[in-house]
Design goal:
CATH topology: tt1808, chain A
Shape: globular
Structural class: alpha+beta
Helix content: 10-25%
Strand order of the largest sheet: 7-10-12-13-14-15
CATH superfamily: tt1808, chain A
Radius of gyration: 17 Å
Strand content: 25-35%
Length: 245
């Protein structure tokens, strides 16, 4: 499988790969496909402010399974192989500012978990999450909080209490909505969206799952510390700390 050595800010590439196929096929993001069928309902749109957003997302199902994803050869160059509705998606290696934000965010959440003495919770960056076998979806969030010991290469969504994604300008609306819908459908209680511009400036929007949809709870902006309670423990966040100085 060829991979473009470009910045994470560029769009992810999608490939539909049968387990025995030597030549991957390119595939569009599910929302960009005309031959769609309804499979899930989106609970929130992180691109829109306030309240909750419900929108039907229609997806074709690709040939690959979660088991295929688990046994696939994952990239060694820093890029990420995810499975979305049966299609393999290869994201370029994260940029420096993306990785800085992920590390800083994980550290903030780790410190909050430690200070709360929640020894049952574990903060892990960029680990595989098996969203659903039926949905043929497995993702790699930038940060997760698990309620099980982080032993292994991937974890079931039922053990994820918080998932955080860092959005760069190159992440399409289709990609964002599809991933958020997957986390909501899988029942992940809390979701954070970190929005970066091209120089790394970030804001953090925290959502909580209510009746199967994500409802916006808190927006943290740079230059002011905001305590986010849409999390397993309260976390004090100044998004300026997520940006390279």
């Amino acid at each position: 499988m060829s991979r473009a050595g470009v910045d994470r800010a560029s769009s992810t590439r999608s490939v539909a790969v049968a387990p025995t196929s030597p030549e991957p096929q390119r595939a569009a993001w599910p929302l960009d496909r005309p031959d769609q069928r309804q499979c899930a309902t989106l609970g929130a749109n992180p691109n829109q402010g306030g309240g909750s957003v419900s929108a039907a997302l229609q997806h074709p199902i690709g040939p690959n399974t979660v088991e295929d994803w688990l046994t696939a050869e994952h990239p060694s160059d820093g890029s990420r192989l995810e499975l979305i509705w049966g299609y393999f998606h290869v994201s370029p290696a994260p940029s420096g500012q993306h990785q800085h934000a992920g590390f800083a965010l994980a550290r903030l959440i780790f410190d909050a978990v430690r200070d709360a003495k929640r020894t049952d919770l574990h903060v892990v960056p960029a680990v595989g999450v098996e969203i659903s076998s039926a949905m043929r979806t497995a993702l790699i969030p930038d940060v997760v909080v698990l309620d099980t010991k982080p032993v292994g290469v991937s974890f079931h969504a039922r053990n994820v209490v918080l998932a955080a994604e860092i959005w760069s300008p190159g992440n399409t609306r289709s990609e964002r909505e599809t991933k958020v819908a997957a986390y909501a459908t899988a029942g992940v209680p809390f979701f954070w969206a970190v929005d970066q511009d091209r120089i790394g400036t970030a804001s953090v929007t925290a959502y909580r799952l209510e009746r199967g949809r994500y409802v916006e709870d808190t927006v943290a902006r740079p230059g002011r510390t905001t305590t986010i309670t849409a999390a397993p423990v309260p976390v004090a966040v100044d998004p300026a700390e997520l940006c390279p100085r």
